[in-house]
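Example 9 (inverse folding). The structure is encoded as follows.
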């Protein structure tokens, strides 16, 4: 929850899990609302990532966001998970050299969820579901860094093409605080959220 009043305050509850998202979501939301000391009527914008990600996780996030928006009358906003990861990486010092970087997340088989971003957080490409070798072929010559749990795989594919790529932040995940800040910066909302698989 991002409260943007006289002072900006973020209250969050995050947990990495392979299963059990549906059962964990509502208790986590209740915990955040209690800690923030706010009622649901105070919410004016509900944000969620729309994927790419696990089929079930994406659907649970979107269904939860739609449900809260319907119950509270809040507006909806969504964005792809790779852009949220890119924002978190930039806040952690990525692209301090001004060069673009890649976000690569392991998908099925030899494929990656892949996106390219510049130092100003502008999306240059993606998100796409692509073979690691094809992703390596899309890398700009000046790009030297990739983040995400697929960054090592992308670096190996890039090396086969003579492109040296450093893999960083293998444990990077979409971050709720980064998502909230992106939503606050957005100029428009969406009538509904649709999954991006």
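The amino acid assigned to each position is listed next.
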């Amino acid at each position: 929850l991002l409260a943007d009043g006289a002072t900006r305050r973020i209250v969050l509850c995050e947990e990495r899990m392979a299963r059990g998202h549906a059962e964990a979501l509502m208790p986590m939301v209740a915990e955040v609302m209690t800690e923030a000391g706010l009622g649901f009527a105070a919410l004016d914008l509900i944000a969620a990532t729309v994927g790419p990600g696990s089929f079930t996780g994406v659907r649970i996030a979107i269904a939860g966001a739609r449900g809260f928006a319907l119950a509270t009358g809040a507006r909806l906003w969504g964005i792809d998970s790779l852009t949220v990861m890119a924002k978190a990486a930039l806040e952690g010092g990525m692209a301090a050299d001004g060069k673009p970087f890649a976000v690569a997340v392991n998908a099925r088989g030899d494929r990656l969820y892949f996106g390219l971003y510049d130092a100003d957080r502008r999306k240059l490409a993606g998100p796409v579901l692509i073979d690691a070798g094809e992703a390596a072929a899309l890398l700009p010559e000046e790009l030297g860094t990739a983040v995400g749990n697929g960054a090592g795989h992308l670096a190996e594919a890039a090396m086969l093409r003579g492109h040296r790529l450093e893999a960083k932040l293998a444990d990077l995940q979409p971050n709720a605080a980064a998502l909230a800040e992106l939503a606050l910066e957005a100029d428009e909302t969406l009538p509904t959220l649709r999954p991006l698989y």
